[in-house]
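Thread: quick sanity check before group meeting

JM: Hey all, I'm pulling together slides for Thursday and realized we never actually wrote out the predicted structure for the chain we discussed last week. Dropping the sequence here so it's in one place. If anyone has concerns about the input, flag it before I start.
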Amino acid sequence: METEQSNQWDVIVVGAGVAGAATAYRLLKAQPALRVLILDRSTTSHKKIGESTVEVSSYFLGRTLNLTDYLIQHHVTKQGLRFWFSNDQCETLDDCSEVGPTYHVNLPAYQVDRAELDEEILRRAESMGARSIRPARVRRIELNAGGQQVVALKTEQGEVSHSARWVVDASGPACVLARQEGWVEANERHPTSSIWLRYRNVLSFDDADLRERFPRYSQRCHGSRQTATNHITGDGWWSWWILLKSGEVSVGVVYDERIVQFPAELNSMEAKMRYLLDRSPLAREILKEATLVPNSAVYRGKLPYLSSSLAGDGYVVVGDAAGFLDPFYSPGMDWIAFTTGAAVDLITRDQGIVKAAARMNEVYRRSYDRWFQALYENKYYYVGDFDLMRMAMIFDLGGYYYGVVRPIYKKGSSEFLKPIFGEISTTIPFLIIRCYHRRLVKMAASRRSRGVYGQNNKGAAHRLLSYTLDWRLPLRLLWNLRIWLWLELKEGWRTWLRPMDRILPSEQAAMRVEDRTED
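JM (edit): ok, ran it. Output follows.
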């Protein structure tokens, strides 16, 4: 049993995953004398979704948390994003349309085993002086603005209370503090759910036999497909394929419940996943000899949510405990980078805490809402169409490089105090991105009504060149406008006078995949 004195801390962090351990690490880096306690309900980290990093989160892990050597040695270096499309006319890999880099990317990221990564960051936080108690189940957090926050928990030794000036909720989707206080707000405008499995013996995207049997497939890419995050898509759904250092492949499907509905007889998560994946010749080919890792199936429904309060005088909510949007484009670790930066800034302040907390609530809520409107709202209505998703990927990735990646790589970790679209100054870029995104949703509806949705999902390819952070970046963004202009002239004109609210949900029935029934 700990003494009363040992129960007093400067900061108590609830959750020992990346968000919690990184917060502790960054706090102790800023102020080594802080007394930091980390609590977690599990004795060890478990496998979880969130294995793919992108350019910003790889900067965060490698340079802010100083993990570059560790990541190179223990995880897979990632070679960008790659999207695959097919329709009923596709029979082989040569037929599947593809968007992805021809060569390797200029700024590689990492494919990480989250259980191992979580433990490594926690170990480093502990080496800097953080204490941890595992298992420890939090029963109640008593908030006292400007005073001592009290955390009641149950450990192997029994019930105990700890107090601290600050509590950081990094409990992930459990949202311990937000659920206790009734702050969790579901995003009902984005009804998405996911199924996640792990497989062994998955055929490599770079397999020599595949390259020999399917020459067009082979010739479209001279770099490695296997170490990219591959996305096999369909109408209203997409899947991720992530190679891990262990040799296992993480495979997940995310789907919009307004579009995808499974036959009632499918009663297992793998059966539902294969129901979608088996529509793709590529998925069928590489899963031919695959075996499911036992007990690896995970289902998460109603994915997006946001905490109505992220900070106050005595508490901060970070990572998935603060909110979650969508796994598409792997934004989760970016969100961790920004929210943990805000937490450290708030906790280490000498004055202006109430004002800073209010600003965090305002800025991060704006960031979440704008990020959703600009990239995710109704995106699943066009994610399975080669022409439309090709334009979205080119513009989304280019805008991300220019507005988010470039400032961080040029100015450093201080940029993590400026969340995406959070500042008023980002209003014009936000409106531009939201504009083309909504145009693509309208074009998708028009294509469905004319029976041509996914017509170029067979035999097309767009070979990307990796973006750079120099003077060529804005020129490439301007040059890519030709793709948008061509789509508008070719067919976008059909939708210019159609209000968005007449497309959804009025045409929802036309967007459903045939032969699907209610659960």
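AS: nice. The domain at 1-48+113-187+304-354 is CATH 3.50.50.60 (FAD/NAD(P)-binding domain). The longest strand covers residues 158-169.
JM: adding both to the slides.
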